[in-house]
Amino acid sequence: MTDDHALATLAGGCFWCLEAPFQELRGVHAVTSGYAGGDTPDPTYEAVCSGSTGHAEVVQVEYDPDRISYADLLAVFFALHNPTTKDRQGPDVGSQYRSAIFTHDDDQRVVAEATVERLADDYDDPIVTEVEPLETFYPAEDYHQDYYANNPQRAYCQVQVRPKLQKVREQFAAQVAED
Known about the structure:
Blueprint: E1 6-12, H1 15-23, E2 28-36, H2 45-49, E3 56-63, H3 70-80, E4 88-89, E5 92-93, E6 99-103, H4 106-119, E7 130-133, E8 137-139, H5 147-150, H6 155-171
Parallel strand pairs: 6-7
Antiparallel strand pairs: 1-3, 1-6, 2-3, 2-8, 4-5
Helix pairs in contact: 1-3, 1-6, 3-4
């Protein structure tokens, strides 16, 4: 990461469902699937899926804040998942699929908390998104990186990831990078 790039670490269900849509955005340089928010050092996918590590599946988004703001990333994040379901997104159930924003500094915390507060009236149920400081990020195994790009025909990608990509392309068209 260079001085003109920043990081955002977000959990909203399966990391595959967040990775591909964030990769579409202007100003996003890299998206890494991984784990955060737990107690187990160097967790594996199998351990995280067991629910025993306390980690959430997350994406860490490296972005240029001069091209896309943290607030804009959060707008996309909230459009991609249901922040009112505790420990569940679609077919994925467990604390590893919780909604969380892992902040990198106080400025991000302020923006995240204000975003949650501002969006609260947009939902019938309370927002359960956790906002907490990032302690450690662990990149996921290599086969999880660029998962949709490498597996677009897999059923999960077709049913879960593809509609999220389409939503970003339509709802955030002005922020989607040109091919």
